[in-house]
Amino acid sequence: MGRPREFDEQDVLATAGEIFWAKGYEGTSTRDLTAGTGLTHSSLYGAFGDKRGLYLKALDQYLDRTLRERIARIERSHTGAAAIGAFFDEMAARSLADPLHRGCMMVNTAIDAAPGEAEFQRVVADETQLIEAFFRRAVEAGQASGEIARRQSATDLSRHLLSVLLGLRVLARVRPDADLLNGLARSARAILTT
């Protein structure tokens, strides 16, 4: 029988996630991970498999604590256009509050992943579908109540909102300007009524 783990897996994933988020998958070395987590190479990979496995688990934890939590929380307190507005306002504020200008770990994964990284692409595709579904539910609720125009389908509007969101998160890395990011959040709300 093996020795019990002497570390908290969630804490290690959070620390590894911060390192990956700041440096990217390819830019993060085993030395970065062992120095940051305080674990040896064998402990780290014994617990999580390999670097890819650790990255995927850290990304999943990041998505649970950020994106999935945000969608669930906003849907509990807002519907329709208010849900979309709250989501975009929070995303812009979060992006501007990050002194490292890391953007979004999921979006960074989409940009940085090599074309052959099918597992990374699958995770990102699944999460973008989750975001699109959130936007679609909010648009459909807003169209049903009359607060969102019906000139475009809920599907088209939700996909447009997804593209604005992804653009906002990319720009947060390279142009973390309050006027720019808040303007994107305003335009996301404005498209719903025009």
Keywords:
elongated; mainly alpha; 0% strand
Describe the structure.
This protein is mainly α and 194 residues long. 75% of the residues lie in helices and 0% in strands. It contains nine helices and no strands. It has helices spanning 9-23, 30-37, 41-48, 51-77, 80-97, 105-112, 118-145, 154-174, 178-190. The radius of gyration is 19 Å and the shape is elongated. The termini are far apart. The model has no long low-confidence stretch (mean pLDDT 93).
What is the CA–CA distance across the termini? 65 Å
Binned strand content: under 5%
Q: Can you give the mean pLDDT?
A: 93
Order of helices and strands: HHHHHHHHH
Backbone CA Rg: 19 Å
Structural class: mainly alpha
Helix content: over 70%
Largest sheet features: none
Approximate shape: elongated
Unreliable runs: none
The counted number of beta strands is 0
How is the quaternary structure best described?
Answer: single chain
How many H/I helices?
Answer: 9
Which helices and strands occur, and which strands form pairs?
Elements: H1 9-23, H2 30-37, H3 41-48, H4 51-77, H5 80-97, H6 105-112, H7 118-145, H8 154-174, H9 178-190
What would a concise description of this structure say?
This protein is 75% helix and 0% strand. By secondary structure, the protein is mostly helical. It is elongated.
